[in-house]
């Protein structure tokens, strides 16, 4: 079984799903199930979704910071569109058990570092960037997304006005 697992993960997963369905119906196929790899894959599904959420939030926060602090109006508009895309995707993969496990402070720190680096190429930020994240995960995955509200909170946390352009 491991050779099919290594050679064609799609076919392997389809076969394993079929075997599990048959096992659930009472068929004696448990010795054909690739238990070792199946158990590993089940664990990996959650980790993969969790890592996707963290990456999407990092992208969304970076773009939110750029929308807040960019000197160029064109970049503000592009950044706002990217915030909407990233946070909508984050909302789709979010599960309630993920919020307490996510280190939003770490995600925020990376987002601030990336935003500072990008803004430096344009002469630095127009508005200050807060060192601490003014949001909780649920603020970022709530639907409908209230981009204006997020920008106002970001501006308040930075001690200055937010880009509402």
What features would you describe in this structure?
With 165 residues, the protein is an all-alpha fold. The protein has a domain at 56-158: Uncharcterised protein PF01724 (Malate Synthase G, Chain: A, Domain 4, Up-down Bundle). Helix content is 70%, strand content 0%. It has eight helices and no strands. The chain has helices at 2-7, 9-24, 35-69, 73-93, 98-101, 104-120, 137-141, 147-158. The termini are far apart. The mean pLDDT is 93.
Would you summarize the structure shown here?
This protein is mainly alpha-helical. The chain contains 8 helices and no strands. Helix 3 packs antiparallel against helix 4, helix 3 packs across helix 6 and helix 3 packs across helix 8.
Please tag this protein with its features.
Malate Synthase G, Chain: A, Domain 4, 165 residues, mainly alpha
List the helices and strands and how they pair.
Layout: H1 2-7, H2 9-24, H3 35-69, H4 73-93, H5 98-101, H6 104-120, H7 137-141, H8 147-158
Helix pairs in contact: 3-4, 3-6, 3-8
